[in-house]
Amino acid sequence: MSRNDEVAALLEEFADRLEATGVEYKPTAYRRAAENVREHTAPIENLAGEGADAVAEIDRVGDAIAAKIVEYFETGSIEELEALRSELPADIEALTAVEGVGPKTVGSLYEALEITTLDELEAAAEAEQIREVSGFGAKTEENILDNIPFAREARERTRLGDARPVADDALSYLDDLDAVESAAVCGSIRRWKDTIGDVDLLVASDEREPVVEAFTDWPEADATIEAGTGKASVRASGTRVDLRIVDGEEFGAALQYFTGSRAHNVAVRNRAIDRDLKLNEYGLFDVSGVDDPDAGQRVGERVAGATEDGVYAALDMGPVPPELRENNGEVEAAAAGDLPDLVETEAIRGDLHTHTDWSDGGFSIAEMIEAAAERGYDVHAVTDHAAGPGIFGNTGLDEAEIAEQAEAVAAAVSEVDGAVAAADSAADSAAADIEVFHGIEANIDAEGAITTDDDTLADLDIVVASPHSALGQDSDAATERLIRAVEHPHVDVLGHPTGRIINSRPGIAPDVEAVVEAAAAAGTAIEVNANPARLDADGDAVRIALDAGATIAVNTDAHSPRELDNARYGVHTARRGWAEAGDVLNARAPDELRAFLDD
Ligand code: DGT
Ligand code: CA
Ligand code: CA
Ligand code: ZN
């Protein structure tokens, strides 16, 4: 965590505590300041060293807040914040993680019931004490109780998109050390789970001490949790990072073991036992002539262990892609030689869900097209928000604005070198570098209606339809809603089907099978939204969709050129659902894509 992030978090806590004590306006000022400190390119500690005036140069950071930041760097704390903490000794971060509990609620519940922790909140709700507090009722109390487990889990697990860059950074740091022979990421990160408990790293080396020392000195490490001879753990960006060091001849077996999942490992180990072999993190051993195979870890004759593929091969099975290792049929498939040929990030030929400054994106139509062309994409769809339920203020486009945008897209296409409009593509696409589709992200209302006129939708190259409102509706209503949406004749892609925000809100829980069957029949693709806060549809839903014969689309929902890089999170999520390139709409050739959209 950079010190900018650290100060931003402190200012956010300040804002929450001010709000909890009933102070008005000031909390907003602190939150805006926090946002700008976090985004500021210069290290805050350097500015603070120069004094409050230098800190106040940051947008939205006034003199009062600047002085507090300097105070923090000079004394290690902020007196006023400490006073607020002792006035309200509640774990405000944990409590506000519960959907429906804001800082004001924390303040009221502390005053009435002295609630300071999630456990106390849960106990009070179970004892029906919260409904007695003025301003609360039985319904609110039930909601709080329902949302506590989600909040608890959210605090324990990190989003893949936050943890993966930490793992990548640690890996390249370790790889550069002379003492390191090979290094790999393992654990749930290597399986690309949507949330992860901790980051696991594995190194092969015969010089363990210098590796441990270098690891605890890794510049991104905020603290050392433990440092032993063969392993060490540090904290970085709020996540635990575990390192294990093994001998080269054991690297493959250790990689297999520490990648998991536990259920997959149990199934693979049973396969070993069936063959008079013993599999553990040290290797694969032939124990057929051994009296007591449990006498030690390295008993019998080593038959594999240096490479992971070698371990699987010695068990008469193909190498199982990490994303599949959840004991959902992958062991049987690998033994039968039936593993899918999973889609790769490089197979993606364009993004079908992106935003520009016409709605809530930060960049122009031309800038986004250029960015897509630079990535080597063959196609790019401009799909800004349509006006409708769940879309804030006038962010979304009404029918007249969509018509206007069609002209703007055409103008941008002629401005960007090598771009051609999808409408003209039949003749020109052979010569074009990138084919641009004009579409919209339409809204699915609570009943499943699309809130943009049919005539307007009919004129567009592509319609992504997504739920943005009524995300607390019950499962039956959600199923009906999404079925009606995918059956709409102009809808091509169902965008982020559940509307979940990982660790923040669960979204709707439709009957996935019913929705994907309707989608398959109607020729509507199911989106895997690659934004790491969404990853929606998830791997399980993708598997169900593909079994039903539906097509998926891996889209980033990018609001900036940089977010186009999130495609890999969507691809690996699709791989968790056993997706091959042919299953993915935007991995198909442009003419096939066009045929799907025209249908
Ligand atoms: P996470 O960190 O909760 O997202 O999930 P994982 O899968 O990364 O689990 P973690 O970090 O506890 O351990 C990494 C891998 O090591 C795990 O997937 C399987 C393996 N492993 C660790 N401890 C055990 C164990 O006691 N038994 C077995 N069979 N495998 C283990
Ligand atoms: Ca882990
Ligand atoms: Ca671990
Ligand atoms: Zn959306």
UniProtKB/TrEMBL annotation:
GO cellular component, as recorded: cytosol
Start and end residues of each Polymerase/histidinol phosphatase N-terminal domain: 350-446
Key words, A-Z: DNA damage, DNA repair, DNA replication, DNA synthesis, DNA-directed DNA polymerase, Exonuclease, Hydrolase, Methylation, Nuclease, Nucleotidyltransferase, Sodium, Transferase, Ubl conjugation
Keyword DNA repair: yes
GO biological process terms, semicolon-separated: DNA repair
Residues annotated as domain Helix-hairpin-helix DNA-binding motif class: 53-72, 93-112, 128-147
Molecular function GO labels: class I DNA-(apurinic or apyrimidinic site) endonuclease activity; DNA binding; DNA-directed DNA polymerase activity; exonuclease activity; phosphoric ester hydrolase activity; zinc ion binding
DNA-directed DNA polymerase X domain span: 1-326
Cofactors (names): Mg(2+)
Compartment annotation: Cytoplasm
Catalytic activity as recorded in UniProt: a 5'-end 2'-deoxyribose-2'-deoxyribonucleotide-DNA = (2E,4S)-4-hydroxypenten-2-al-5-phosphate + a 5'-end 5'-phospho-2'-deoxyribonucleoside-DNA + H(+); 2'-deoxyribonucleotide-(2'-deoxyribose 5'-phosphate)-2'-deoxyribonucleotide-DNA = a 3'-end 2'-deoxyribonucleotide-(2,3-dehydro-2,3-deoxyribose 5'-phosphate)-DNA + a 5'-end 5'-phospho-2'-deoxyribonucleoside-DNA + H(+); DNA(n) + a 2'-deoxyribonucleoside 5'-triphosphate = DNA(n+1) + diphosphate
The keyword Acyltransferase is assigned to this record: no
Main location as per UniProt: cytoplasm
EC nos: 2.7.7.7, 4.2.99.18
SMART domains in the cross-refs: HhH1, POLIIIAc, POLXc
Functional note: Repair polymerase that plays a key role in base-excision repair. During this process, the damaged base is excised by specific DNA glycosylases, the DNA backbone is nicked at the abasic site by an apurinic/apyrimidic (AP) endonuclease, and POLB removes 5'-deoxyribose-phosphate from the preincised AP site acting as a 5'-deoxyribose-phosphate lyase (5'-dRP lyase); through its DNA polymerase activity, it adds one nucleotide to the 3' end of the arising single-nucleotide gap.
Protein's name according to its UniProt entry: DNA polymerase beta
Species this protein is from: Halorubrum persicum
Species classification: Archaea, Methanobacteriati, Methanobacteriota, Stenosarchaea group, Halobacteria
